[in-house]
Amino acid sequence: MNRRYRKTIIAGNWKMNKTPAETKDFIAQLKPHAARAKWCDIVLCAPYIDLPAAVKAAKNTRVDIAAQNMHHEPGGAYTGEVSGQMLRALGVKYVVVGHSERRQYFGETDESVSQKVRAALECGLRPIVCVGESMAQREKNLTLDYVRMQVKTVFWGVDAKDVKKVVVAYEPIWAIGAGAAATAQQADEVGRAIRECIREIYGARCARSVTILYGGSMNPKNAGELLSMPDVDGGLVGGASLDCDGFVQIIEQANQ
Ligand code: 13P
User: Fold this and answer.
1) Whose C-alpha lies nearest to ligand 1, atom 9?
2) What is the pLDDT of residue 1?
3) Half-sphere exposure of residue 234, counting CA atoms within 13 Å on the CB side?
4) pTM reported for the whole predicted model
5) Pocket residues for ligand 1 (CB within 6 Å)?
6) How many whole angstroms from 99 Cα to the centroid of ligand 1?
7) Is the pLDDT of residue 95 over 90?
8) What phi and psi values does residue 20 have, to the nearest 5 degrees?
9) How far is CA 41 from each of CA 50, 133, 180, rounded to the nearest angstrom?
10) Which atom from ligand 1 is nearest to the alpha carbon of 45?
11) Taking Cα atoms as reference points, which of 175, 155, 168, 171 lies closest to residue 212?
């Protein structure tokens, strides 16, 4: 973390979990802890149907709400989809874009992810863009080249003034749901390469203002070490964000 230049963010990605009633209870439990976490922004990425309950429960708290996906068009004949404008109208502040599960199971590509990033910024949402390599790529020593290519594609067409609104989440696919996270050194190495890539496009000032999260089996035990690295500015937490006590323990470590 480096709070001099950028925000620390802990985001919980619930994936396809929790009902509206569970959402309300979770936020009520989180609220007093969130109030104490002055140095760390807290985001909950909830399923679409939980968003109204989440926004309502998080009103006047330090918790911001994110969607887990959006369509790049503002409206139209796209059955089953939700636009950024709709999310904004609800009071949603962030949107996860290009999670590896969406790339793997729902056919999202770097190009469609890039379209969504621009669409999110246009309607005033902050995108949390996910990048990260597979184990096969890591084993072939392709990690840094691959992630750099992803970063260049997702920032394509993004105006310099909007760069710091983008949150980049480095999520190595092999560490997601695996029980074992990347090491702090691995997370920091890729975080540094992401920032370097942003610096090449937009310059040093822009690059140092971007919050870069790590995601993939982050939990209360490994969070402290991961967050101590200069280019790990927070976490995108999956499984360990479903239980409020565990999530709070991670927040407390990010708030130190
Ligand atoms: P886990 O923390 O469950 O590994 O999930 C990480 C993730 O995919 C967050 O978006």
Assistant:
1) 238
2) 87
3) 25
4) 0.97
5) 13, 99, 171, 176-177, 215-218, 236-240
6) 10
7) yes
8) -60, -40
9) 20, 26, 25
10) 10
11) 168
